[in-house]
Amino acid sequence: MRSFEKILLERRSIRKYSAEDVDDATLNAILEMGCRASTTGNMQVYSIIVTRDGEMKKRLAPFHFNQRMVAEAPVTLTFCADFNRFNRWCRLRSAEPGYDNFLSFVTAAIDAVAVAQTVAVAAEARGLGICYLGTTTYTAGGIIEALGLPAGVVPVTTITLGWPAEQPEQVDRLPLEAVVHCETYGDYSADDINRHYASRESRADSLRYVSENGKETLAQVFTDVRYKKADNEHFSEAFLGILKKQGFL
Question: How many domains does the chain have?
Fold first, then answer.
């Protein structure tokens, strides 16, 4: 098993997996470690949906923009904010829950993401590869239907998991000084921004993205192509509708 430092510093997203399965004992050990993650008030207001069945993966794939790893990875894990179970426990114990609000969703979403990241590290410690799917909240309604999620349960992130069949180049990260503030938040000058983003903007892959998309800067690739204002507004409205439907608004 690799050292903890190497696991964290050398991690990379894996999108191609071997055909080798992840056995139940390994998966359950990883999930058990993940569920030791910190949780608000020890409520554990999250659930994890394990998808192994090929047909179920095909059902989920369109909701992840048909990314190939959803169908090809041995395991797909959907992490959900879940107050349904906790609410039921409260009512069975003559306690009336008051968690039908946005703050409760945020609480449960934080719980779910903390567990997801702990599962990811536990998996990588055993030599498995993972990839986060940011599409989960874009198409939460379809995922809710596919997985049969009741009121009080909302998917917040998804991880594909399996034995790596690739060793991709590690993506860059901003320097520590760009993201760490001491005591109070220190806002950024133009010189700060130029310095912090210089390495990222000069990478060969970044220059290729700019050229391929016919843009002038890497920032324009983000604002005009990858994460457009119109898309953000559309998916925001859809997700707020999901929160209302599932009882959080």
Answer: 1
Residue 43 covered by a domain: yes
Write out the residue range of the structural domain in which residue 13 sits.
Answer: 4-168
Q: Over the chain, what is the mean pLDDT?
A: 96
**Residue 138 forms part of a structural domain:** yes
Under 8 Å between Cβ of 226 and 215 = no
Tell me, what's the pLDDT at 1? 57
User: Rounded to whole angstroms, how far apart are CA atoms 16 and 51?
Assistant: 17
Q: Could you tell me the CATH number of the domain that includes residue 123?
A: 3.40.109.10
Domain assignment of residue 222, yes or no: no
Position of tokens 């000069």?
A: 202
pLDDT in tens, 186-245: 999 999 999 999 999 999 999 999 999 999 999 999 999 999 999 999 999 999 999 999
Give the mean model confidence (pLDDT) for residues 35-61: 97
CB burial string 219-246: b at 16+ within 10 A, e below = eebeeeeeeeeeeeeebeeebeebbeeb
Q: Tell whether 245 is covered by a domain.
A: no
C-alpha to C-alpha distance for 147 and 101, rounded to whole angstroms? 23
